[in-house]
Amino acid sequence: MNDTVDKLVIFLAKRDGIDKLVKTFQYVSKLANWRVEATHPDISKRFKNWEVAAGLSRKAFRTGRFLTGFNTLRRNPGSTPTLRLLAVLSNSGEMVYFFFDHFLWLSRIGTLDAKLAKKMSFISAFGESLGYVFFIIADFIMLKEGFKAERKLKSSEGKEKSEETEKEIQKIKGDRIMRLMAVAANVADLIIGLAEIEPNPFCNHTLSLGISGLVSAWAGWYRNWPT
């Protein structure tokens, strides 16, 4: 029990940890609002207020977040030319998302002209979606490389099985789980982004948005939870 509490404290001390918790509030309240909207309009309004407040607080908390893209490219630009290009494209899209998200937040709270909100939302969502597409492609490439490396290690086990080899295999499997979580989160967020760029019955349905938001939040919980 104490270990779980310690991990929760560490998790919530991170910017991403707080973001995933508030994102959970945002999309749980969205689904709750949809569920009771027709039968309990007074309760529905409370859930709607919770959703809006959670969404705006996440935007405020992400102030300056676009700068992390520069740091990521500086520290880990990619091991091959293809991965380096994908890293530049994906992080550039994410930086556009976080940068214009500042103006979207300011327009929604009334600091800037409210008419800017729709335009800022479109630019932000476009950059976000573009970034997620390249993140997903890069993760699939790395997953493929991981499978190849694991097969190679397993084929050499019969000749020279060692503790080091087993550790390397476990490391590859651990990385695979994290990348699958990243793909799940990015696909879910891509659906949310597409709902803003090109509204359609599937992406814009409350159930689709709510489930996508929770998948993204909980995949983020898993990836950021202390080991």
UniProtKB/TrEMBL annotation:
It is found in: Peroxisome membrane. InterPro entries: PEX11. One of its GO terms (cellular component) is peroxisomal membrane. It comes from the Eukaryota. The keyword Calcium does not apply. Homooligomer. Interacts with ARC5 and FIS1B on peroxisomes. It comes from Vicia faba. This is Peroxisomal membrane protein 11B. Involved in peroxisomal proliferation. Promotes peroxisomal duplication, aggregation or elongation without fission. Belongs to the peroxin-11 family.
